[in-house]
Input
Amino acid sequence: MEIDLLIIGAGPAGLTAAQYGARANLKVLVIELLAPGGQALVIDILENYPGNVGQPPKSGYDFAMDLHKQAQDFGASFITGEVSSVKKENNNFLVSLSDGSSYTAKAVIVATGSKPRLLGIPGENEFSGKGVSYCATCDGSFYKEKHIIVAGGGDAACDEARFLSRLSDKVTIVHRRDAFRAQKALVERTLANPNIKVRFNTVILEVKGELKVKSVVLADTVTGAITEEEADAVFISVGTVPQSMLVKNLAALDDDGYIITDRKMSTNVPGLFAAGDIHSGAFRQVLTAAADGAVAAHNAAAFIDRIA
Ligand code: NAP
Output
């Protein structure tokens, strides 16, 4: 198959890029490691996507499935696989997969997003899947009416806590500072939620248990007091780390490992674009990821026209 535009990653950025690329009459191939949807899959209610005003608004999962169908309907092809390298050879990109297959393409959009940041505390790994989780919509239903700890103070932590507060009235957010970093509307709703208790200026030192999580050891960062609190689950939402390893020897990255792009979503390598959470300075919303994907595909099409 002769490919014009190869897209790595099928989150909102990659899926939108696929649709725009296919509509620009490019032969588009999307390679995704698992299922399409990316981080959008874990959004319970996608209430801040303009126009998503149903009762209730569509979930991130349903939204991603629609994006996927739309891209396919416009002619984009999808395969599942693990990309192991991206190289520029002459005027083409050579994209290799860990199963030994490879593809050449005239332009590439990297839309590999990010993955949850770990807390790096004792017990986190040991109890992962046994009470420690990074996804409330995936695992929350195991902890109905249980005591749930959520770590973090950003949009994701507040979103996760809201989802969990419908399953249990014993949700505690533990945040290391004295104020949330999340958007004002989310903060107000979190603080007003009777099922959510907030412990500011607190860090989790350890997750303890036997076969599953039983408690967390907390430290008050102001007084230094250390306490142990009973807990059945710990949902960790302390940010994300970019999945840019694939292009670390090809494209310029910022100090945190995000790919540096210009307003056209071009990297420093002609024909290589980046879109969504993976690019430096992103606002990191489904909306902005989708917009990045459209911009990247539009400019990839222009690039392909220029080199034709
Ligand atoms: P984030 O905005 O980077 O927030 C991470 C939070 O975790 C911060 O409160 C941070 O504390 C805390 N944190 C980081 N490292 C920590 C550590 N080692 N120990 C304890 N706490 C730690 O990340 P996010 O909430 O995952 O969101 C990621 C991006 O997705 C953001 O751009 C966000 O706006 C977007 N997002 C949007 C929505 C929405 O619009 N509904 C939903 C989810 C995510 P400090 O505040 O002290 O730094």
Observations:
- The radius of gyration is 21 Å.
